[in-house]
Amino acid sequence: MLLLCPIPIKKGHAVNFLNSSGEDSHPDCNHTKSREKPMAIFGSGLIDIHSLSRNKIMSILALAKDLKEALLARDVPRYKLCRDRDLLVALLFYENSTRTRSSFEIAALRLGLELTGFGSIEGSSVKKGESLAHTLDMFDAYQCDAIILRHPLDGAAKQAAERVGIPVFNAGDGKHQHPTQTILDLFTILERHGRLDNLQIGLSGDLKYGRTTHTLALALSLFSGNTLHLNSPPNLPMPSSIIELARTRGTEVVIHNSLEEMVPDLDIFYQTRIQRERMPDPMEYEVAKKAGIFTMELMNRTKKGFGLMHPLPIDKAMPGILPELDAHPNSIYKIQAGNGVPTRMAQLALALGLAAESVTDEEPVAAIPGGFCKTLPVVTKPVREGVSIRPIRDRGVVIDHLRPYSESILARLLKLEERADVYRSATVRSVKRPDNIKGMLMIEDRDLTEAELSMVASVSPGARVNRIVNSRVIEKLELQLPLTIEGIESLHCPNAGCISRPEHMEHVAPRFDKIGEDMVACSYCDHIMTTRELFASISK
Ligand code: NCD
Predict the structure, then answer these.
(1) What spacing in Å lies between the alpha carbon of 181 and ligand 1's midpoint?
(2) Cα 221 to Cα 76: distance, rounded to the nearest angstrom
(3) Ligand 1 centre and the CA of 311: distance in Å?
(4) What does the pLDDT average to over 248-261?
């Protein structure tokens, strides 16, 4: 999918499609909604990397450095920050884990926190069919102070954060993100190179389903002068939305066909495991077996200061890094995994108010106007003869400039037949501009509510709505894509792994955020699409 999202605005970025000024916004639809801002670390966990600015990341890394030094020096008063506070952290792991779970546990214990939860769904009521929401409610009811969640569905952590009022840490949600891993990855890169900018970084392996590389690529794109070199089996490329976003931020992204060609230039090579368990089609794994393997021969071609990283585990049946490299001084994946403890201590400490942020200045967040329709001047014209569709004579609405063929989706969403409305719909050639094909929908004796107007605006941004009373257009509205699309029956996220999909039975209402003029992202799994792609599922 080619993504044309010039200025991503999700979560704190500026929108490039500004609505009308306050004066001509229609009173029905001129709400201003504040977009999600980069989160303060204190009092909140970490759901996805979009919520962190460069400054926030540096603040976490600075505290993690201090804590690592304190741990190495066994300086207990310097790292056991919980002191006499009684704080309880719940680890809810719906997927296997060695490092993330253990390092979070150790981080909590070193801080002096208490632990509860489960490391596997075996033996829990998840096996009895309990939803994520209900399980979360329990740990909220038990007055836990933070939740650390690993879950197979994309967007699970976002849902958790919306469900409970305590900090939630995303310890990996499906193929979506793994932000606390990224913090330890960045810490390791900073330790190795003393900087997070102007680096040549190779990401390799399963770039399609691997959440670690998704999050790391996005984080590295926040720092200037980095080049991302990508290499994956042909069927497992990095999602184009991530590549586009990185490029929009000025990060160079180079796609390679072999490890041999990319390795000599790299400061860091980040290998990943083929995520067989996430592949719906077993054939995907068969093709993926062609993934590049990091060998001693490749290591011998690397430049000074090079670091070989891996989030681990390495699959012994199909190793992305050969075992003889474990002892090589440039193999830093053991150090990397060890950094999971101080970095997760830092994140827990900041979230629970056990430590203060060292860098607090934040990039300003542009306010995003929320109106989705503006009033246009009404021009009274004589009724044209010979047009293909007769206008409404007495009372009703005429929706014009619709995206071609979207009128049938709207007829369904506006329940025209169920309501026994009289309507006419068509995709027609514009009378004034014959090269322009547009949809039209005319509904007699009907006015549209704000929710219905928002629905029309979502399906077909740019549409115009004429309200007709006594055979006269009394109001003309131009619609723009609303900030949020929600509450539309049978509209689902196209990502099969998204927690909001009905087949997962998690009862998460789908919601989509505007990220460009005609682009939206799923609020849960971040899947990016045009509105046409979003509504394609209900047009069938
Ligand atoms: C990764 C994960 O679970 O996403 N490991 C980790 O958390 N350290 C990578 C993987 O499973 O391959």
Answers:
(1) 8
(2) 36
(3) 6
(4) 95
End-to-end Cα distance, the chain:
20
Give me the mean pLDDT over the 64-88 stretch: 96
pTM, whole model, 2 decimals?
Answer: 0.88
* Residue 13 belongs to a domain: no
* CA distances, 441 to each of 399, 406, 446, 469 (Å): 5, 9, 12, 16
pLDDT for 9 beyond 50: no
Pocket mutation for ligand 1, best pick of 151, 154, 212, 273 (most atoms within 8 Å of C-beta): 212
Confidence of residue 521 (pLDDT cuts 50, 70, 90): very high
CA of 98 relative to ligand 1 center, distance in Å: 9
The amino acid that residue 171 corresponds to is A
Is the Cβ atom of 171 under 6 angstroms away from ligand 1? no
- Active-site residue, 85 included: no
Return the best residue to mutate from 178, 182, 216 for the ligand 1 pocket (most ligand atoms within 8 A of CB). Answer: 178
Region 38-48: mean pLDDT is 71
Strand order, beta sheet including 268-271: 252-255, 227-231, 200-204, 268-271, 307-309
How far does residue 100's CA lie from ligand 1's centre (Å)? 8
Residue 41 banded pLDDT, cuts 50, 70, 90:
low
pLDDT at 22: 34
My answer on whether 204 and 323 are in the same domain is yes
Q: What is the helix (H) or strand (E) element at residue 335, kind and residue range?
A: helix 333-338
Instruction: State whether 78 and 127 are in the same domain.
Output: yes
The verdict on whether 150 is a catalytic residue reads yes
What CATH number corresponds to the domain at position 233?
Answer: 3.40.50.1370
- Does any domain span residue 279? yes
CA distance 481 to 348: 38
pLDDT at 4 over 70: no
The structural domain count of the chain equals 4
- Determine the pLDDT at residue 377: 87
Ligand 1 pocket, residue 100 CB under 6 Å = yes
The answer to whether residue 421 sits within a structural domain is yes
Residues 50 and 131 in one domain: yes
Sheet holding 528-530, edge to edge: 484-486, 511-516, 519-522, 528-530
Q: What is the CATH number of the domain that holds 465?
A: 3.30.70.140
Q: Is the CB of 212 under 6 A from ligand 1?
A: yes
Residues 28 and 169 in one domain: yes
For atom 6 of ligand 1, which residue has the closest CA? 311
Residue 383 has a pLDDT of 58
Each residue of 213-238: pLDDT tens digit? Answer: 999 999 999 999 999 999 999 999 99
**Does the residue 8 lie in any domain?**
no
Give catalytic status of residue 390 as yes or no. Answer: no
Q: Catalytic residue at 127?
A: no
Query: Is residue 433 among the annotated active site residues?
Result: no
Q: Which of 504, 503, 494 is nearest to 525 (CA)?
A: 494
